[in-house]
């Protein structure tokens, strides 16, 4: 059966798929997934580069191990800082292990006093992705707006393989990713 071709229906469908997939993983498989930086990503993680990640919520891919390894490789780490649905998302410096504060939408983020920065690599959460490397997010547009002004940044979506669709609904303001990393593969066009 063909799903409805609108973003809200697709969000519901892919959140359910993601939740069911992650719930079915053994604790060992979940711990091993995304536990090591793959070589296609490692080529970008040069000393002094700024890598932006996020703190996972629910069944989202957890980039904590990737961020910790990037930090050990000499990269600076940043996390998003959000104040509202309408306000632009900023990236603030963060070191693994530093305290985080609650933000809107259930986010954990650096304190607003952390230094701002411009990431070179952005690891993005997502609800689904398609063959064009279009990303379906939560719906607030924070990442699309941020990526639209980070023209030099490499944007890598982190997803479970079940979050793939051949094509997703998209709008003209949606920003494609440069690559997707799943528990099984590195995907580029």
UniProtKB/TrEMBL annotation:
A biological-process GO annotation: tetrahydrofolate interconversion
Keyword vocabulary terms for this entry: ATP-binding, Ligase, Magnesium, Metal-binding, Nucleotide-binding
Origin: domain of life: Bacteria
InterPro entries with a match to the protein in the record: FTHF_cligase, FTHF_cligase-like_sf, NagB/RpiA_transferase-like
Cofactor(s) demanded: Mg(2+)
Catalysed reaction, written as an equation: (6S)-5-formyl-5,6,7,8-tetrahydrofolate + ATP = (6R)-5,10-methenyltetrahydrofolate + ADP + phosphate
Binding sites annotated in the UniProt record for substrate: 55, 60
A GO MF term: ATP binding
Amino acids binding ATP: 135-143
Keyword Nuclease: no
One protein family per Pfam: 5-FTHF_cyc-lig
EC numbers, comma separated: 6.3.3.2
NCBIfam families, alphabetized: MTHFS_bact
Record PANTHER family: 5-FORMYLTETRAHYDROFOLATE CYCLO-LIGASE (PTHR23407:SF1), ATPASE INHIBITOR/5-FORMYLTETRAHYDROFOLATE CYCLO-LIGASE (PTHR23407)
Similarity field: Belongs to the 5-formyltetrahydrofolate cyclo-ligase family.
Protein name: 5-formyltetrahydrofolate cyclo-ligase
């Amino acid at each position: 059966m063909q799903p409805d071709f609108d973003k809200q229906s697709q969000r519901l469908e892919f959140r359910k798929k993601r939740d069911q997939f992650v719930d079915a993983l053994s604790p060992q498989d979940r711990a091993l997934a995304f536990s090591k930086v793959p070589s296609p990503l490692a080529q970008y993680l040069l000393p002094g580069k700024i890598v932006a990640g996020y703190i996972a919520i629910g069944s989202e891919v957890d980039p904590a191990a990737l961020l910790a390894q990037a930090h050990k490789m000499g990269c600076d780490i940043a996390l998003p800082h959000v104040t509202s649905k309408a306000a632009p998302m900023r990236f603030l410096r963060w070191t693994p292990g530093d305290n985080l504060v609650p933000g809107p939408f259930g986010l954990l983020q650096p304190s607003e006093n952390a230094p701002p920065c411009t990431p070179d690599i952005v690891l993005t959460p997502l609800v689904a992705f398609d063959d064009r490397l279009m990303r379906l997010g939560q719906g607030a547009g924070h990442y699309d707006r941020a990526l639209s002004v980070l023209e030099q940044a490499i944007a890598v979506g982190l997803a479970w393989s079940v979050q793939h669709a051949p094509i997703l609904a998209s709008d003209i303001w949606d920003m494609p990713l440069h690559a997707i990393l799943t528990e099984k593969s590195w995907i580029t066009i």
